[in-house]
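Input structure tokens:
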């Protein structure tokens, strides 16, 4: 029987839940404020979904989901945008999203799970709100471990660095060592087998394998782009006006193609746009498709994000996919928690044997 039962707050489309379940964790409930998350989360993971802001969530709703579990887990991967480098200093403590970590802290202290996990951008570790969160866990007698990890070290075909926190009331805890100790999984290994597409094209068999349409000038730009190159490689007539200015010359990491034999760049919520980063396909004259973005986030190729027959909106699906915890990283977190609990149970059995032997 599965010994760890979890509730996934800020569950999104289910990346973390999918990974935890692959590792053998029994996820019993997902909670999110975004209604478009319900179908992909519930359909793919066969797990109940609660549409509710965490600010309105009562800890009793969480403990009810854990009923009968020996070891409980509360996962809370709050939206990362306020702490991301991409915010360019536009977000601070006045942004309401900063308070979501404090709400997660409230629910941890009230529900008192055996285990806690959180994933976010590395920059969060520099913020006072994170320092206060860790201090609150330690005061509540949790053993806390956190580190910045490379997702590629755990089988994600992407150069994504994330802050991962694990906490336990049982004993000191840490993340398992990297599972991918050889060459990182590459873009070629991840998406090269998918059917080719043109700009604005879609695949008949997979509605998610569709590419955004490029404007005529962007079509010229991507044809002039080299894998791993920048807009600085283009003929000057193709360079955008903003990049001709002195302030724009320091932003080369846009309008680029991916390299086949490297991991992908960090998949953001705007990955479907050629001008939003290095999201050009290595060979085809288009940005990567929604399905390719999901695969680079290590979602299974058959993961469904929209009900059959329903319209597909790039911005909506880009947000769901780009905000997700990479599935393989979620699996590594789950395996770390399972390993930790097994070690505790083994020590518990040994102590019981010793106690009987001394009687």
């Amino acid at each position: 029987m599965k010994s760890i039962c979890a509730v996934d707050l800020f569950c999104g489309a289910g990346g973390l839940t999918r990974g935890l379940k692959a590792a053998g964790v029994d996820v019993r409930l997902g909670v999110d404020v975004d209604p478009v998350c319900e179908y992909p989360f519930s359909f793919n993971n066969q797990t109940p979904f609660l549409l509710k802001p965490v600010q309105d969530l009562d800890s009793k709703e969480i403990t009810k989901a854990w009923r009968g579990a020996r070891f409980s887990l509360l996962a809370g991967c709050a939206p990362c945008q306020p702490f991301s480098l991409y915010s360019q200093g536009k977000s601070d403590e006045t942004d309401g999203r900063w308070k979501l970590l404090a709400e997660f802290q409230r629910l941890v202290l009230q529900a008192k799970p055996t285990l806690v996990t959180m994933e976010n951008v590395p920059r969060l570790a520099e913020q006072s709100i994170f320092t206060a969160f860790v201090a609150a866990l330690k005061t509540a007698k949790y053993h806390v471990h956190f580190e910045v990890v490379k997702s590629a070290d755990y089988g994600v075909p992407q150069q994504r660095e994330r802050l991962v926190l694990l906490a336990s009331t049982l004993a000191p805890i840490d993340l398992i060592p990297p599972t991918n100790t050889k060459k990182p999984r590459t873009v070629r290994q991840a998406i090269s087998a998918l059917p080719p597409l043109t700009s604005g094209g879609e695949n008949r068999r997979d509605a998610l394998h569709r590419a955004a349409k490029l404007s005529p000038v962007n079509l010229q730009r991507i044809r002039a782009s080299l894998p791993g190159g920048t807009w600085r490689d283009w003929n000057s007539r193709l360079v955008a006006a903003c990049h001709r200015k002195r302030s724009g010359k320091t932003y080369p990491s846009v309008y680029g193609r991916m390299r086949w034999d490297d991991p992908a760049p960090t998949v953001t919520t705007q990955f479907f746009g050629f001008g939003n980063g290095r999201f050009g396909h290595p060979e085809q004259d288009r940005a990567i498709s929604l399905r390719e973005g999901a695969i680079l986030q290590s979602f299974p190729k058959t993961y469904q994000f929209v009900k059959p027959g329903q319209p597909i909106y790039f911005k909506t699906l880009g947000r769901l996919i780009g905000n997700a915890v990479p599935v393989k990283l979620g699996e590594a977190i789950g395996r770390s928690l399972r390993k930790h609990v097994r070690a505790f149970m083994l020590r518990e059995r040994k102590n019981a044997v010793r106690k009987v032997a001394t009687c």
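The longest helix spans residues 327-358. Confidence is low (pLDDT under 50) at residues 83-88.
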